[in-house]
Amino acid sequence: MAVYTEVSVPQAQALIDQLGLGKVLSLQGIQGGIENTNYFVTTDSGEYVLTLFERLTAEQLPFYLQLTRHLAQRGIPAPAPYADASGHLLFTLQDKPAVVVDKLPGKSELEPGVAHCSQVGELLARMHLAAQDFTLHQPNLRGLHWWNATAPQVLPHLGTAQRAMLEDELAHQNALAASTAYGALPRSAVHADLFRDNVMFEHARLSGVFDFYFAGVDTWMFDLGVVLNDWCIDRQSGALEPLRASALLAAYQQKRPMLPVERRLLPDLLRAAALRFWISRLWDFYLPREAAMLVPHDPTHFERILQDRRRAPHAVSALLDAAH
Ligand SMILES: Nc1ncnc2c1ncn2[C@@H]1O[C@H](COP(=O)(O)OP(=O)(O)O)[C@@H](O)[C@H]1O
Ligand SMILES: N[C@@H](CCOP(=O)(O)O)C(=O)O
Predict the structure, then answer these.
(1) How confident is the model at residue 290 (pLDDT cuts 50, 70, 90)?
(2) What are the residue boundaries of the structural domains of the chain, listed by start?
(3) For the residues 213-237, what does the mean pLDDT come to?
(4) CA 167/CA 120 separation, integer angstroms
(5) Where are the alpha helices (DSSP H) in 52-135?
(6) CA of 222 relative to ligand 2 center, distance in Å
(7) Given pLDDT bands bounded at 50, 70 and 90, which one contains residue 1?
(8) Which of 193, 227, 284, 297 is the pocket-test mutation for ligand 2 (most atoms within 8 Å of CB)?
(9) pLDDT digits (tens, 9 = 90+) for 57-96
């Protein structure tokens, strides 16, 4: 269930008119999402997605919308928001901020193979290069600052061993962030949540990337860590699955060879990416937001991944060396 706010055809038509996108033929609520209200809108000019933002405010949205537009203009298959004659991207519908974007073709691949991971690696490198000249700035709002602020809220809910790991990893990440090597890592606005459910494939070809609402400026290796930790794991153990991970890394490096400092710090950034989603899932699980209609994701999944990345930090380095 993810139509929190009902929209009628005349209301949708009024917005579609402002954008010059034709006559609304059908309006269908999308059940998949958890944060926002989404509708598929079919008009006589094409297929679109209408989103009403339930959490983000009009002041927060320009960064995400402009980033998506910037990437789309550079050939990334991201759903660019439509502008009215004055160039406005953001509108108001039912008192909520609203946008209309292109409907991406295809569907998510929740059981990816080597060929899917290879395409995602290439896409990620292209996104990093394309974001280099994006001028708006917003930090990753789910970055180190947020982990430090949120950990004390979840720690009381954890057992002794979990607490020890969380505190130790947080100390490690704070020390890393203060290091000269970390300061030398390339960074830009990154997606920061490029999980399997945020990428589309059509006829086995990558056809779209969406849901940029956790984007922010962070290191490219953190973003790569997020992707490796979701697309290339053995679900049972949380370990990296070598074939998929090698394919993803090779495709990334084909487009954008990593610097020596990036290769050296990638194991730490895989840990950082695991910690980020362990904390957010613990937070959703133990401190659910009021009226949120989401079923919390399983935090133990990322606890296992973090354990694995700490236990075998050089697994990814071995894959990088083998590909060299
Ligand atoms: N631009 C788009 N093109 C095609 N489908 C989309 C698009 N945006 C969203 N969807 C569909 O809507 C679902 C929910 O979108 P999502 O951005 O994940 O919502 P939420 O932010 O509420 O979780 C997606 O799983 C996808 O099926
Ligand atoms: N990818 C995150 C959850 C973010 O939610 P999304 O549906 O907006 O991608 C996780 O798996 O914890």
Answers:
(1) low
(2) 9-102, 114-323
(3) 96
(4) 32
(5) 61-73, 114-130
(6) 16
(7) very low
(8) 193
(9) 999 999 999 999 999 999 999 999 999 999 999 999 999 9
Distance from Cα 193 to the centre of ligand 2, integer Å: 7
Q: How far apart are CA 10 and CA 48, in angstroms?
A: 16
SS3 21: coil
> What would the pLDDT profile of 162-205 be if each residue is shown by its tens digit?
999 999 999 999 999 999 999 999 999 999 999 999 999 999 99
Closest alpha carbon to 84 in 11, 20, 10: 20
- In angstroms, the CA 236 to CA 186 distance is 33
Class of domain 9-102: alpha beta
The answer, yes or no, to whether any atom of ligand 1 lies below 6 A from the CB of 210, is: yes
30 within ligand 1 shell (Cβ under 6 A): yes
Domains 9-102 and 114-323 share a fold: no
Domain spanning 114-323: which CATH class is it, in words? alpha beta
